[in-house]
Amino acid sequence: MRENREIALAMEEAKRAGRKMALATVVRVKGSAYRREGANGVISGGCLEPDVTEVAKQVMADGRPVLKRYDLDEDFVWGLGLGCPGTVDIWIEPVSDDGTEKVTDTSRSSVEENAEGQGFAGKEGLS
Predict the structure, then answer these.
(1) XdhC- CoxI domain: from which residue to which, for each copy (predicted)?
(2) Pick from 56, 49, 57: nearest CA to 77
């Protein structure tokens, strides 16, 4: 609950400052990962956030959500064998100007439709 409150406060602050916002949510986990489905805000032990931040910048710029897949293996985190070996799908979406509703529907069917539309059936085209 504390994390959700922090996210809501950050969204209110961004709205007051007139900044665009995006929200990243873990929508699928296969294998082992730091966070489970539904987690947002802090979505990993820190290894995914830098890339998710860059994707979020693009999402805020063009207003289109992105489904991003991360294959976490032994060498993913700094080549030191840290982290959890699994696959994590992150839904990164713009937040409406009023900061109270997400712009897009994040239901499982909506995410899956978006994934199919992006050719998300396999690793091709993904980082």
Answers:
(1) 16-71
(2) 49
